[in-house]
Design goal:
With 168 residues, the chain is mostly helical. It has eight helices and no strands. The chain is globular.
C-alpha cells in the first residue's frame, strides 16, 4: 500500500518526465515560438505553442539516463522548491525574469518587433543565468550534505555566489 497522496505521486510523475532533455529543450524553444505567434497573430501557432508547453511534461517519458544538463537543471529546481528558495542571486534572477518575460509578451501583443526581440532575448538570457546559478547552488548544497542544511541562508548565498571562483 502506498503512503504517498495522489498529489505527491502526480508531482513525482511530472518531475520525472520534465527531466527528459526533450522536455527541457522544447520548453526553451516554445517561448520564442509563443512570442512570435503573438507578434504575427498566428492563432494556430499560438495554440500549438500553448498546448506544447502544457502537455510537455506529460507526454514525454522519463529519461533513460540522468547525464543530460537539462536533468541537472530539473533536479536543482526540484531541490530548490523542496528545500526553500534560498540564495539571494537565485531569488533576484527569478524575480527579474518575470517582468522582462511579461514585457516581451506585451511588446509582441503591441506589435513592436524590436522591443519584442530584445525583451525575448533578455528573458531567455535571464532564464539561462538563473538555471546556471541554480545548478551551481544545487551542487554546492548537495556536496556539503548535512552542513548545507544547518548553514544560514546568508552563508548559503555567499557560497553559491562564489562557486565559480577559482580556489586559492
Amino acid at each position: 500500500m502506498s503512503t504517498t497522496v495522489p498529489s505527491e505521486r502526480l508531482a513525482e510523475f511530472l518531475w520525472e518526465r520534465h527531466a527528459n532533455p526533450w522536455s527541457g529543450w522544447t520548453r526553451v524553444f516554445a517561448f520564442p515560438v509563443l512570442v512570435y505567434a503573438i507578434l504575427t497573430r498566428r492563432k494556430r501557432l499560438l495554440v500549438a505553442a500553448v498546448v506544447a508547453i502544457a502537455v510537455n511534461p506529460v507526454v514525454l517519458p522519463q529519461p533513460e539516463d540522468a547525464r543530460a544538463w537539462t536533468n541537472d537543471v530539473v533536479q536543482a529546481e526540484r531541490y530548490w522548491v523542496d528545500h526553500g528558495k534560498h540564495g539571494t542571486l537565485l531569488r533576484a534572477l527569478d524575480v527579474a525574469t518575470l517582468p522582462v518575460t511579461v514585457g516581451a509578451l506585451y511588446a509582441a501583443y503591441r506589435r513592436k518587433p524590436r522591443s519584442t526581440a530584445v525583451l525575448t532575448a533578455l528573458s531567455m538570457a535571464l532564464k539561462f543565468a538563473f538555471v546556471n546559478a541554480l545548478v551551481r547552488h544545487y551542487e554546492i548544497e548537495t556536496a556539503t550534505g548535512a552542513g548545507a542544511e544547518s548553514a544560514s541562508p546568508d552563508e548559503r548565498d555567499s557560497s553559491a555566489e562564489t562557486a565559480d571562483e577559482p580556489a586559492s
